[in-house]
Amino acid sequence: MIDALTLAVGLAALALAAWCGFAFSRDQSTKDWHFIGMAVVALLAVVQLVVGVVRLSGGDRPAQGMAVFIAYLIGSAAAVPAAGFMSLVERTRWGSATVAAGGVILAVLEVRLYDIWGG
Amino acid sequence: MADSSSSKAAFDLGQGPGRLLVWLYGVFTVAAASRSIVQMILDFGRAPLAYVLSAVAAVVYAFITYSLVRGGPAARRAAQVCCALELAGVLVVGTWTLVAPSAFPDATVWSDYGMGYLFIPVILPVTAMIWLRRAAADRTG
User: Fold this and answer.
1) Lowest CB count within 10 Å: A18, A56, A75, B135, which one?
2) Nearest beta carbon to residue A71 from set B26, B27, B38
3) Is residue B8 part of a domain?
């Protein structure tokens, strides 16, 4: 894996979490700008999924096992889109809270991905 | 029970704060299920007790997620029972892993009161029970 990319996804996810957490604290639902932010973070996570698959097909192996690594890659790519869809349905501050939680979850997944790849 | 037809303004378990609970329970269902499935397939013999307990946790999480989405009084009561079970499970398994670590060569979702998961496993059932209780009060009041 590319460490810089893992770091970038993690930090972007935390920024998204803070931003949506702020919207939650101001009693606001997610707005268009939030969805653009989610799209950026989700795109980063997908790029990482692609990079991970390319590295695997190139013969590199994660230290803690293939299956776990792939599961975390898929989970990290799905986390923010799933939260985004829930916030589309929930047009209250709790939709913002859902996305904020999704951002934190993605950041945690990135830390785990780093561990799984590096040992 | 019979008021489901007239409950236009009835409390929906999966809305508002409940949406956040659905999301977190959904994530934990996936986390616990995939964890136990992967570990059981790869090396069940290493820590069978831990893996079975993770699988049990996954089933409990899945059921609560389903109940929250389904809504209604029956689902609320079922979810309440399961949250109590979940809390008991976290406390028992958490204590168990601390008292007899040798029984757990590998961690479960509920090891050390869910420390590996930011203690969310112990916070979640308490929050959910408060939410379900409020749903019940709203219905009667």
Assistant:
1) A18
2) B38
3) no
ipTM of the complex: 0.94
Q: Give the best residue of B11, B12, B13, B23 to mutate against chain A (max A CB count within 10 A).
A: B23
Instruction: Note the pLDDT tens digit of each residue in A37-63.
Output: 999 999 999 999 999 999 999 999 999
Neighboring chain A residues of B38 at a CB cutoff of 8 Å: 67-68, 71
Q: Residues with Cβ < 8 Å from A17, sequence gap 6 or more?
A: A99, A100, A101, A102, A103, A104, A107
Q: Which of A105, A90, A113, A93 is nearest to A17 (CA)?
A: A105
Identify the H or E element spanning A34: helix A32-57
Is B24's CB within 8 Å of A101's CB?
yes
* Domain-located, residue B43: yes
For residues A44 and A5, the answer to whether their CB atoms sit within 8 Å is yes
Domain that holds residue B91: 13-140
Give the tokens for residue A39.
């799209």
Tens-digit pLDDT profile for residues A82-96 = 999 999 999 999 999
